[in-house]
From TrEMBL, chain A:
A Pfam family annotated for this UniProt entry: Acyl-CoA_dh_N
PANTHER family: ACYL-COA DEHYDROGENASE (PTHR43884), ISOVALERYL-COA DEHYDROGENASE, MITOCHONDRIAL-RELATED (PTHR43884:SF12)
Domain Acyl-CoA dehydrogenase/oxidase C-terminal intervals: 224-372
Origin superkingdom: Bacteria
Descriptive protein name: Acyl-CoA dehydrogenase
TrEMBL record, chain B:
High-level lineage: Bacteria, Bacillati, Bacillota, Bacilli, Bacillales
Coiled-coil region list: none
The protein's name: Carrier domain-containing protein
Carrier domain ranges (all copies): 1-80
Organism of this sequence: Brevibacillus parabrevis
Pfam families: PP-binding
SUPFAM superfamilies recorded: ACP-like
């Protein structure tokens, strides 16, 4: 796969983030919502379909270009990039890969045009990344399916027009994925309050009471909800979150460097203090390293390499850890000012933590990476006695 | 390299059990034996698609197509380009 877009849209995206997103980042969080106007504009520019093939209204960006787009949007406001992660990655890409023609026409094209927002309903009060343990259940009811259960922490659940719901059949333990429309009878949505950050991601609790869906709302085949749909979607999500981490870390780095070069202390700019240079030196190195991992993941995804999944996991793990470290160090460099919401690092510090939790915690990523390492780097002949 | 051997090597490179003596036949169900996990299924799909230039459709996502070496080989061979 080569970079196929007729021109790089990166400059346009940078300008868009600069003018339409960054100035409003704090406001979005205060209002606990992205503006409808922003979502509409992202739809009009096809950013919400940036990675989709042209036949689904997308910009057909190479994964590297798409990653750069997510980074730039994430630099502007994490919740805006979260919208890409959810509706473009988790939902749109999953439907393009495994959905029927009907589902693509009914759900993917409206996402591409910014007319509909989709959300991914996997997590439950007692179930995180372990999709095979979901308690939300479904049963066959004639030529329909009937779904009952509760989903929690669903990003953009508050405004989503439809959901991909992962549910299990208690009689067979099969895990399957269904499309559920917001307006369907039996769907109850409640906004989740009291969040540490990313309130503009509009998380919701979704209750499903005997929600009936037609057979054409089943995604793929019965039984592929875990291995096929959930794992595929989470992989898409992790790729997005990896680049969001780079974007957030880059934003924190720029604030940190700018502040250090402007702030006077004891008669000189604080950048001149060696301990501050140490912090900045580490931050620059870590941001570049995280971006390198993301770029390698993008290249491997473009090549459809089987290890792209693990590379994406490493990128997500490392960049979210780096985002936390750099945001924390940025607060440290800004001192008391860093603890005040007059400066953006206070928000970045709180937002960074979310990246280590969503789409599988850092500890889940570590397990996947360790298993990969145990296979890849085992050299039994190297050590014969232990 | 024979198709069976190619698939076996891929499975061996992605085991989730670390017993040097692990053995399985071409008809053993590698999922039921706990030798691989759900993430492997995704890697396997990617591997088959890239290695054999195939596209796996959603209606082909049956565990019975991927749970033994022989079933994987039969599935690959059933796709038109390998008939």
């Amino acid at each position: 796969m080569t970079i196929t877009s007729p021109h790089s849209i990166l400059e346009e995206v940078k300008q868009f983030a600069e003018e339409e997103i960054r100035p409003f980042a704090a406001e979005f969080e205060q209002q606990k919502a992205l503006s409808r106007e922003l979502i509409k504009k992202m739809g009009e520019k096809r950013y919400l379909a940036a990675s989709f093939p042209a036949q689904y209204g997308g910009l057909q960006l190479h994964p590297l270009e798409y990653g750069n787009l997510v980074e730039e949007i994430g630099k502007g406001a994490l919740s805006a990039a979260m919208l890409l992660t959810v509706t473009t990655g988790l939902v749109g890409e999953t439907l393009i890969r495994w959905g029927s023609d009907y589902q693509k026409a009914q759900y993917v094209l409206p996402i591409a045009r910014g007319e509909k927002v989709g959300a991914f309903a996997l997590t439950e009060p007692g179930v995180g990344s372990g999709a095979k343990d979901v308690k939300t259940s479904y049963e066959k009811a004639g030529d329909k399916y009937r779904i009952t259960g509760r989903k929690k922490w669903i990003s953009f659940g508050e405004i989503a027009d439809f959901f991909i719901v992962i549910a299990s059949d208690p009689t067979t333990n099969a895990i399957s994925a269904f499309l559920v429309d917001r307006e369907q009878e039996g769907v109850h949505i409640r906004k989740i309050e009291g969040l540490l950050s990313c309130a503009a991601s509009q998380l919701a609790d979704i209750e499903l009471h005997d929600v009936e869906v037609d057979a054409d709302k089943l995604i793929g085949k019965e039984g592929m909800g875990f291995t096929g749909i959930a794992n595929f979607a989470l992989d898409q999500g992790r790729f997005n979150v990896a680049w969001m981490g780079v974007g957030l870390a880059q934003e924190a780095l720029e604030v940190m460097v700018t502040y250090a070069r402007k702030r006077n202390q004891s008669g000189q700019k604080i950048f001149n203090f060696q301990l501050i240079k140490g912090i900045i030196g580490d931050a620059v190195t870590n941001v570049h390293a995280a971006r390198s991992l993301c770029r390698e993941a993008a290249r491997m995804r473009a090549d459809n390499h089987p290890d792209a999944i693990v590379q994406t996991t490493m990128a997500k793990y490392f960049s979210s850890v780096v985002a936390n470290k750099v945001a924390s160090d940025a607060v440290q460099v800004l001192g008391a000012n860093g603890c005040c919401n007059l400066y953006p690092v206070e928000r970045l510090f709180r937002e960074a933590k979310i990246l280590e939790i969503i789409e599988g915690s850092s500890q889940i990523q570590q397990q996947i990476i360790a298993m990969h390492g145990a296979n890849r780097y085992y050299q039994p002949k190297r050590i014969t006695e232990v | 390299m024979q198709l069976q051997e190619q698939i076996r090597n891929f499975i061996l490179a992605n085991l989730v059990v670390f017993d040097d003596e692990v053995e399985f036949s071409d008809d053993d169900n590698i999922f039921e034996l706990g030798f691989v996990n759900s993430l492997f299924a995704m890697k396997l799909v990617t591997f088959i698609e890239s290695e054999f230039q195939l596209t796996i459709e959603s209606d082909e996502m049956e565990i019975s197509n991927f749970n033994t070496i022989n079933n994987i080989v039969n599935f690959i061979q059933s796709k038109s380009v390998y008939k």
